[in-house]
Automatic annotation (TrEMBL):
GO terms for molecular function: calcium ion binding; FAD binding; proline dehydrogenase activity. Pathway: Amino-acid degradation; L-proline degradation into L-glutamate; L-glutamate from L-proline: step 1/2. Residues 170-205 form the EF-hand domain. This is Proline dehydrogenase. Its EC number is 1.5.5.2. Converts proline to delta-1-pyrroline-5-carboxylate.
Amino acid sequence: MSRFGVKAILDYSVESDISQEEAEEKAIQGKVSDDQIPEAITALSGQLDPKSVETTHKQFNVHAKFGDRRLGVVSARTYFYSSEHECDKNADVFRNCIDAVATTTDGRGFTAVKITALGRPQLLLKLSETIAHARNFFKTLTGSTWENLVLSKISREDLLRRLKDFGIKADSKLIEEWFKMIDFDADGFVDVHDWGNILEHSRDFASMFQIINVKTGKLEPLIPKLSSQENQEFSNMMQRLIDVAEHARSRGVRIMIDAEQTYFQPAISRLAVALMRKYNQDGGFILNTYQAYLKSALNDIETDMHLAKRENFHFGCKLVRGAYMDQERRRAKEVGYDDPINPTYEATNDMYHRCLTRIADEHDARGLGKVSVMVASHNEETVRYAVNLMKEREIAPSQRVICFAQLYGMCDQVSFSLGQAGYSIYKYLPYGPVEEVLPYLSRRALENGGMLKKVQKERSLLWTELKRRLASGQMVYTVPEKNDI
Ligand SMILES: Cc1cc2nc3c(=O)[nH]c(=O)nc-3n(C[C@H](O)[C@H](O)[C@H](O)COP(=O)(O)OP(=O)(O)OC[C@H]3O[C@@H](n4cnc5c(N)ncnc54)[C@H](O)[C@@H]3O)c2cc1C
């Protein structure tokens, strides 16, 4: 691949070969002990939209029927939690993967990391629910809309007034202390970033996101009460993630955090951005993944880019359409919350291109080295769109602002042409011991109906090339030198 200018992303693809029933059982077994809506939120039932509190809780809860997260997913492998020891082994695998990238790609490759491999996924669900409730509360406090949330903030005086409107009984000294605690940048205002600031400041699940319970007037965690074992597991998960990132840093290998199902995404994205803030001071060392099939995609990018600009770190993004569409739609319908996916394929395409353009605008505004995006797509129209955008904005392929990625064995005609034309292009390589990678690869081959259309196109291109070589007598293709292109 490297002869054609194509680089590698190693994606450890070992998947447990378990039945659907076993997967559903595992999901239920892994449920956290306290499964209630936090007291501090129910106490706000007069102020918060009760429908949104209830649906948020349902959305981020475990549902046995959707416990087999592999169903309908072809381009992503799935981890099932079995023990802390297994998660330690997964962290070791990521470290080995980083070593392999360091030695085989001359520091130019990436390692893909799935956070669900590093801890009990149900803890990510709880963290996601907490983030969703906290945002909802912040939106109500500031009277903002979802679109404007990133620009909303509230001063100490306004907060006091709003809480009084809510009928709060807490004394003003406690509120003062609370305000100081959540105003992380001490600028006299609490904004959405202060509100959501976690990883840097606390590893203890229970003390995160304390809010005032309007009924009792006491500070209470927004997060449900976890057992000491669950608290320990959460702290283990954070530690594994940090260890993997530190190891990557020490080997000079970049990592990308994969996006997964929407009910994990608030937590995954929050952690990925916390890593970016820590490690992206001098460039795009960590990439977070954004899924354009989500109605919220542009808003999510806007929020994270806003933080990156404010705190002057590099915003690194892998932009995909999203791999879990059918599963997401079915779950939303059956569990009873709004479908998070764009209504049509065209709407997803439009969202993809709007996100890409917005990132290019941010690059224009912040300058070289502050923003980068990986166009992770097989869609030829999108690749063309990105190439044209680069021309329009005078972004050279060598500047590492926009690069491309495709799955190994998919759309090689696009990847290899991009590589030979000097664009930065990567292939996602499933990797691992053959017999353990087979469950994932065979599932991908069996379920891959949509992608087969693209394979047919590749087959017809291969025939054309074969005929061309037979007719011209040039049986072995020689890679042109860069200056021949
Ligand atoms: C390098 C790489 C890394 C990836 N990493 C991730 C990851 O971390 N997380 C992740 O979720 N996925 C990931 N994917 C998979 C990706 O999200 C897509 O599923 C896959 O690439 C197909 O999309 P496309 O742009 O290549 O092609 P296309 O065939 O043009 O798009 C198909 C996609 O469009 C969307 N879509 C299709 N029909 C509709 C509809 N009716 N309404 C709304 N949207 C629709 C769906 O997202 C579908 O997958 C990755 C893909 C690549 C190439």
